From TrEMBL:
Single annotated GO MF: ATP binding
All copies of domain ABC transporter, residue ranges: 5-230
Organism of origin: Amphibacillus indicireducens
Keywords, in A-Z order: ATP-binding, Nucleotide-binding
Pfam families on file: ABC_tran
Protein name: ABC transporter ATP-binding protein
Length: 294
């Protein structure tokens, strides 16, 4: 069954502090969403509202047209995967996966076992004795194998080393092909993960700053590469986000549209125009907001 989600003017207040401010957006079946925001932007709060861990202060959340809060059927279809404290978990992986199967209706035990092998988790150790990265891998296995139509990974990959994160990214692509669902990846590892996103949500100080497809987002600017002097002159009218130079070759990341006329000029000047890096846009947009307030 395919799921869709709608947030309509959702706010969340903690005493006098408004962590989420009148946020509206939609999530569609089969898409992988990158939820990006600086520390404290409100990512976990937003996701916990979707997972019905808490109620919004105002606004409406709907999952397939229904309010998910205390709705057992819908809640069993949403899997909010976050860093779990396993310090009292004496079970082994095998026992733990069996227990999970009993309350997740779509749980695929065979797939879970394959992932346990892929991430090389020990079968005989109690989970409390796992390393941080091994516990993160277990969370990821539970997230994938539960096959919930709405799966949320909230920064669960931070404890994993680079080769394990790479396995995770591969699995995101393969599993979205095999069993498409709404998949939300909340992350700070923007440059490493951006290729996984179909759609980008940038949350800044509780407000939804960007809600666009990945392709739309990276059209907001460009990278310009070529001879340093020529690049400097060409990029001068633009807002420069980042620049790198190696010998005479310079590459700058600019914010703003390179129109058809500029594209022709770039070609004539032997400059290479490429897509914007999402990470540079993220840093730029969230920084700019701060300088406005200063
Ligand atoms: N239960 C709570 N009571 C009071 N303030 C809270 C509560 N939960 C979250 N906040 C505040 O809401 C803001 C957003 O927190 P949240 O954890 O959602 O941010 P985040 O984007 O997930 O951050 P990070 O990337 O650092 O994990 C923070 O200022 C935080 O202190």
């Amino acid at each position: 069954m395919s799921y869709h989600v709608e947030f309509n003017n959702v706010s969340k207040k903690f005493k006098n502090f408004e962590a989420i401010k009148e946020v509206s957006f939609k999530l569609e079946h089969g898409k992988t969403y990158g939820l990006i925001g600086r520390n404290g932007a409100g990512k976990t709060t937003l996701l916990s509202l979707l997972a019905s861990f808490q109620l919004p202060s105002s606004g409406q959340i709907s999952v397939n047209g229904e309010d998910p809060f205390e709705n057992r059927r819908i809640m069993s279809e949403i899997n909010f995967v976050y860093e779990v404290d396993y310090s009292n978990e004496y079970d082994t992986v095998t026992d733990y996966l069996e227990a999970t199967e009993s309350y997740r209706p779509n749980f695929d035990q065979e797939y879970a076992n394959k992932l346990v092998e892929l991430f090389e988790l020990p079968l005989d150790k109690p989970i409390r004795d796992f390393s941080t990265g091994m516990q993160s891998a277990l969370n990821i296995i539970l997230g994938f194998a539960s096959r919930c139509p709405i799966t949320i990974f909230d920064e669960v990959y931070l404890g994993m080393d680079a080769p394990s994160r790479e396995l995770f990214y591969q699995e995101v692509i393969e599993e979205q092909n095999r069993n498409p669902r709404i998949l939300i990846l909340s992350t700070h590892l923007v440059s490493e993960m951006d290729y996984l996103f179909d759609h980008v949500l940038i949350l800044n100080r509780g407000e939804m700053m960007i809600d666009e497809s990945f392709d739309q987002v990276i059209q907001r600017g460009a990278s310009i590469t070529g001879d340093a002097g020529v690049v400097d002159a060409f990029a001068a009218p633009f807002n420069i986000l980042n620049s790198q130079q190696l010998g005479r070759t310079k590459s700058v990341m600019v914010y703003g549209e390179i129109n058809a006329e500029k594209q022709i000029e770039a070609k004539r000047l032997d400059l290479e125009i490429g897509p914007l890096a999402l990470q540079d846009l993220f840093i730029h947009l969230t920084k700019k907001e701060r300088s406005h307030e200063a």
